[in-house]
Amino acid sequence: MIAFKFSRIWSRFQSHPCQGFFRNLSSLMAVQPIVISGPSGSGKSTLLTRLFKEFPNCFAFSVSHTTRKPREGEIHGKDYFFVAMEDFEKMISEGSFLEDAQFSGNRYGTSKMAVEMIQKSGKLCVLDVEVNGVKNIKQTDLNAKYIFVKPPSLEDLKKRLEGRGTESMESLQKRLDTAHEALQYAEQPGSYDHVIVNDDVDVAYDQLRKIVIDDIKSLSNGNA
Ligand SMILES: Nc1ncnc2c1ncn2[C@@H]1O[C@H](COP(=O)(O)OP(=O)(O)OP(=O)(O)O)[C@@H](O)[C@H]1O
């Protein structure tokens, strides 16, 4: 009975799409990080939460650098890399960031080092960035896979943001204004490798799963 259970568990472990991938460390460095983008409220977090839940050992977000002070409970290296402004600027001048931005007087950036740390840990790096981040990352040598999550319509987007209950009137309007820019950029040929229209969430998730998992499977089959 125990042997039967063990063999069932072992066969599931063996067939898990990440297993062969983890065995070959050199192949890790060949896996393209995933850059996911889309208007606020399009469903990026919803889709990624599903993906991370289904494959808890495969994916990780990179840890950003910031010049803002840590909040209570935040851990350096886990929540953020907290750095002084002069160190942040030095990193910019050295070309260490894939993208950086400024909010409320603080600087934030995704470093190449943070992405490499995830790749070395045996996970596939996921970057959730807004449209300017996508444009910036494209200027670097990061060989990423770009995925755009598109709402079925602006009307749906508005309803979802209202339904989420996280926005004030002002921030809702700001997000809808920004959505225009993101949707226009996504219309440009070559802007993204994949566009997922998040109408039915199950259909959208299946598309994301296929895009991501097929790559990992091909690596585990020794193609990398
Ligand atoms: N296919 C869908 N149909 C209906 N509602 C959806 C769908 N996908 C996501 N939602 C809902 O829309 C809201 C916005 O989704 P989510 O928070 O995942 O968006 P997001 O793109 O991650 O936004 P942000 O960039 O602001 O973090 C949530 O309340 C979510 O439950």
From TrEMBL:
Identify a single GO molecular function assigned to this protein: ATP binding
Q: Which CDD domains match?
A: GMPK
SMART domains assigned: GuKc
Q: Does the keyword Transferase apply?
A: yes
Keywords assigned: ATP-binding, Kinase, Nucleotide-binding, Transferase
Q: Can you give the residue ranges of the Guanylate kinase-like domain?
A: 31-213
Please provide an example of a Pfam family that matches this protein in its UniProt record: Guanylate_kin
Enzyme class comes to transferase
The protein's matches in PROSITE patterns, at most eight in alphabetical order, are given as:
GUANYLATE_KINASE_1, GUANYLATE_KINASE_2
Question: E.C. number, please?
Answer: 2.7.4.8
Entry GO CC: cytosol
For this protein, the parts annotated as crossing the membrane are: none
Q: Which NCBIfam families match?
A: guanyl_kin (TIGR03263)
Similarity comment: family membership? Belongs to the guanylate kinase family.
- Name listed for the protein in its UniProt record: guanylate kinase
Q: Which gene encodes it?
A: LOC111125194
